[in-house]
Amino acid sequence: MTLVQPRVFIQHAARETKSAERILGDLVVSIEHLRPHLAKDEYDYLNELNLGTVVMRGTDAGSDGGNERTWAEMDLGDVALIAWRGHIEAAGEIVMRKNSPALARARNHGRYHFLCFLRNVQRLHVPYARLNSVLGH
What we know:
Distance between the termini: 32 Å
Radius of gyration: 15 Å
Structural class: alpha+beta
Low-confidence stretches: none
Order of helices and strands: EHEHHEHEEHEH
Mean pLDDT: 89
Strand order of the largest sheet: 1-4-5-6-3-2
Number of helices: 6
Number of strands: 6
Strand content: 35-45%
Largest sheet: 6 strands, mixed
């Protein structure tokens, strides 16, 4: 049996985010709200997970396409850390990725259409310095 270690991706909260509490509040979306924007197999997959809601995060391609390349490397089971003002404020498991400008517009994400959906999201407040020391940096 091969043990696969999840990778960790750091995503920064929007600059205009006013407080740590708002980082997740605007990002929680019901599976039913997503349904019109999902293919049947995508909806069925999320529905089978019995989540009810997910946290939807998005990014643009980036000036050199780097954000899109990073997004394309994300796999199911990988971990997304959500960073804001020098801290990791939340962490969650990636359950799906989707490139959807229409869904991004519908959820007021604008140009951030490279989307990932998270479950088991936990609020944290870990300073970068602490994270770096744990990682040996």
